[in-house]
Design goal:
23% helix, globular, Mago nashi protein
Length: 253
Amino acid sequence: MNSSKINYTGLVLEYDSGIVPPPYSHVFRLALDWSKGDLEAQLDLHYTEREELSEEEILDEGFTLQDDFSYKGKLNSIWIKPLQQMHDKTKWTNKDIEEGGISVTLTEKGKDLGLKIPSNQEEWQLMAQDLIQAIYETIKKEAPLKVSYRKVSSEDTIDCSLTVHFSNREVIFEKNGKSNPVNWEYAIQLMKMIFTPDYHYELAKEEAGKKRGEYIECGDGYWHELGKGVVNIDPSFDAVGKIKQGFEELLGE
């Protein structure tokens, strides 16, 4: 029977980071239910094996001593259709995920319809991360992700920004005080590209550059010059070039 024909009204995503060492290793369970029309979400996230580390070792990696998180409440129902589309296009596998991965359990009005392992693990993990980010934004635990970009040429200086609102799947592009919506998938692919290269913080500045070039600030207040402070990790893949191209398209150039 085609899995897309199954009548389901919710999904449970369960993830285990597997062989990732602490303090990064974690598990979560994200239950999503739309049987009553609204999208109800319940998240339980727990960091594992931290008893092996000192407090200093945890803090030095940028974590806190209270990173476990739980949430129960509503999410914007705009997430329902993407979840259904992801499920209906997924091919399932019998592959073991003992070394880490994500599983999907369908539910119908709370009734368990069986656990499945998606073959497109990365896509489901990214979807889960987006949903968790949506929860963080919904409760104001974190602000929307905003990336600022400056292009300096011999003619002029152009400043713009891209703000991703996970809470309602909206992306806003701003330039010269004017804002326009951007296609969600396009923006997410560009964001993925933005976080692909190496960022050399020893070369970063607290103000955007004024010399000819392209500069980017990823929400932490530090500006990096593309090609100098931001460099490709893999010589065969020009992520920096793709970042420039993505913003050129947004700027209409």
